[in-house]
């Protein structure tokens, strides 16, 4: 069952995000230790406004356990969504004006897709994509976009199978990513 994340039930969400974004989590949290990264991700997830807010997360549950998620938002809101995170980083003496560009205007940007290792290969990611594409249409978007790490050919193959096309290359946290688009 896919539904919007709830502020009072975020168990496993930070783990799923961290498992998908790896070193980008260090950049977003200003932390290097996994325990502190997960703690800061939990903090962000429970906030009302930021890119990692529960309001942008749709979870896949099996027997009341969150086993997958897709996190997506309006690309035109990136500045507003990143401000709370940038403000939090200042409390750790990390002063950034912005994060590296991950998307372009007028896209429903899929920031993160993650499925627990024990549940991979069961079509959960595909269902999450179908759900978010419908959500994007409902919100009036013509396209969805995402990034895929050059070093993740398995994900690239999945996204191409789902109809995403390479658009350009972006560098985020010192890694190259394919920016991919799908018209919906």
Could you explain the architecture of this structure?
Helix content is 35%, strand content 28%. The chain is of the alpha+beta class. The chain has a single domain (2-183), classed as Aminopeptidase. A hairpin with a 2-residue loop joins strand 6 and strand 7. It is globular and about 40 Å long.
For the biggest β-sheet, the strand order reads 1-2-3-4-5-7-6
- Tell me how many strands there are: 7
Biggest sheet statistics: 7 strands, mixed
Task: State the separation between the terminal residues, measured CA to CA.
Answer: 22 Å
What is the H/E order?
EHHHEEHEHEHEE
CATH arch. level architecture: 3-Layer(aba) Sandwich
According to CATH, the fold-level topology is Aminopeptidase
Q: What Rg, in angstroms, do the CA atoms define? A: 15 Å
Overall tally of structural domains = 1
In short:
With 184 residues, this protein is an alpha+beta fold. It has helices at residues 13-21, 23-29, 34-45, 78-90, 124-138, 153-161; strands at residues 2-4, 57-62, 65-74, 108-115, 143-149, 165-172, 175-183.
Outline the secondary-structure elements.
Layout: E1 2-4, H1 13-21, H2 23-29, H3 34-45, E2 57-62, E3 65-74, H4 78-90, E4 108-115, H5 124-138, E5 143-149, H6 153-161, E6 165-172, E7 175-183
Helix pairs in contact: 1-3, 2-3
List keywords for this structure.
single chain, 184 residues, alpha+beta, Aminopeptidase, 7-stranded mixed β-sheet, 35% helix
């Amino acid at each position: 069952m896919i539904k919007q994340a709830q502020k009072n039930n975020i168990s496993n969400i930070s783990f799923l995000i961290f498992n998908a974004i790896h070193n980008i989590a260090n950049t977003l949290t200003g932390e290097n230790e996994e325990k502190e990264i997960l703690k800061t991700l939990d903090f962000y997830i429970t906030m009302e406004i930021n890119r990692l807010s529960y309001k942008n997360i749709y979870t896949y549950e099996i027997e009341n356990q969150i086993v997958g998620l897709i996190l997506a938002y309006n690309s035109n809101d990136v500045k507003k969504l990143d401000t709370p995170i940038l403000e939090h980083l200042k409390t750790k003496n990390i002063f950034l004006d912005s994060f590296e560009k991950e998307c372009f205007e007028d896209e429903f940007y899929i920031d993160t897709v993650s499925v627990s290792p024990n549940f991979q290969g069961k079509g959960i990611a595909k269902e999450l994509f179908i759900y978010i594409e419908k959500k994007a249409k409902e919100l009036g978007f013509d396209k969805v976009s995402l990034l895929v790490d050059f070093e993740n050919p398995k994900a690239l193959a999945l996204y191409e199978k789902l109809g995403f096309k390479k658009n350009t290359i972006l560098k985020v946290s010192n890694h190259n990513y394919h920016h991919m688009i799908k018209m919906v």
